[in-house]
Design goal:
With about 100 residues, the chain is mainly α. It has one domain: Serine Threonine Protein Phosphatase 5, Tetratricopeptide repeat, CATH 1.25.40. About 80% of the residues lie in helices and about 0% in strands. It is built from six helices and no strands. Helix 1 packs antiparallel against helix 2 and helix 2 packs antiparallel against helix 3. It is globular. The chain starts with a helix and ends with a helix.
Length: about 100
């Protein structure tokens, strides 16, 4: 919980910081608060659709919560963006997770 408080403090000073928002969402996942993590990932990707690392984590969160169709949607968006950004590593991770889900 201490990390969440610190990250929220940092984010209050830099509300548009993608890294801090992503890190805070991951901390919420660790704390078992998927709803708050989802809000953060979705608002981050709405603001900056090229922050490719968040697609994977958001889709995995949705998978865990039995929202398969939503997870597929986010994997597909993430693969498209990763390809556009030339991030082959992220693309391959998203593709592998996507294929595991749809098979």
């Amino acid at each position: 919980m201490e990390r969440i408080v610190k990250l929220k403090d940092f984010l209050a000073g830099s509300p548009g910081d993608n890294f801090l928002q992503h890190a805070l969402a991951l901390e919420y996942i660790k704390a078992g608060d998927d709803a708050e993590a989802r809000k953060l990932f979705e608002s981050l990707l709405e603001r900056d659709e090229n922050y490719v690392g968040s697609y994977y984590h958001l889709a995995k969160l949705l998978e865990r919560n039995n929202e398969k169709d939503e997870a597929i949607k986010w994997y597909e968006k993430g693969m498209l963006k990763a390809k556009e950004c030339g991030d082959h590593h992220a693309y391959n991770e998203l593709l592998a997770a996507y294929e595991d889900l749809v098979e």
